[in-house]
Every structure is written in C-alpha cells, then in structure tokens.
Predict the 3D structure of the following.
Amino acid sequence: MTLQTATPTPTPTPDAAPAPAPGVQLVSDLVARVPEFRPVFDAHVFRQGDVQPHVFFWDVVQGTVGAFLGEADCAVDWRRTLEFLEEQSGRGETCVDDVIVTSFLGDLPHPHEPGHAIVGQLGPVLAARFLRLRPTG
C-alpha cells in the first residue's frame, strides 16, 4: 500500500493584489512617464471612481494636441507622450493596442481641424496604425 500525500494548495496572501488590467497599467505607466497628466488622472479617478482607460485617453488626446499647438494651459510634453505610446504600441499587447488605436489615434484631429499636423509626428508603428484606421487622414 502506497501512501500519497496531497500537495497543499497555496492560499493567496491578503496583501497580494491582482495585477492591474493592461489598459489600466498603460494609464499608470503613462502618468509615471508624463507626470503632467497627474492632475488629469486624479480628476478622472475622482469623477469615474476607477480608471477607465478609454475615457482617460480623451483627456490625453486633448492635452497632447493642445501642447502640440502651443496652447498656454497645456503643459504636457507632447513629444514624450508620443514616444511613450510608440513604445507601448510596439509591445503587441492587444488590450493596450486597442486603447491606443481606438481612444488616441482615433480621436486625433481630422485634416480640417487644428492640430492635425501632429499626425506627421507619429512614430512608425503609430503612423502605420493611424493610416490603417484613417487612410484619408
């Protein structure tokens, strides 16, 4: 007769929080890289009660394009924002790509709107995705 001992299943510790969803992590990483978005982030979490990546990225587009246009109330480093999004787009993470394409590239100004020239500043990965999303600009 052979005795088999059961391997105990580890129980999660109370302080082990689950990893944030990729879209939420994207927002957190963006705010860390471009701290000028911190006040917008704080207001977003206050209004929404949680991080809603697609909703937050509306403010990212507004701040990035406003800074590109030189608007006085937009202190965001638009170049650093585009560099960050380019890096993130190159990772191949579907959820992250969905937020960036849908809620950043999709909301960039159209050719007849102020700030459309920012499209010419997109890195190669973002530019290719923008072209697929909006072939006419």
Q: What stands out?
A: The radius of gyration is 20 Å. Residues 60 and 117 are 17 Å apart (CA to CA). The mean pLDDT is 90. The longest helix spans residues 53-68.
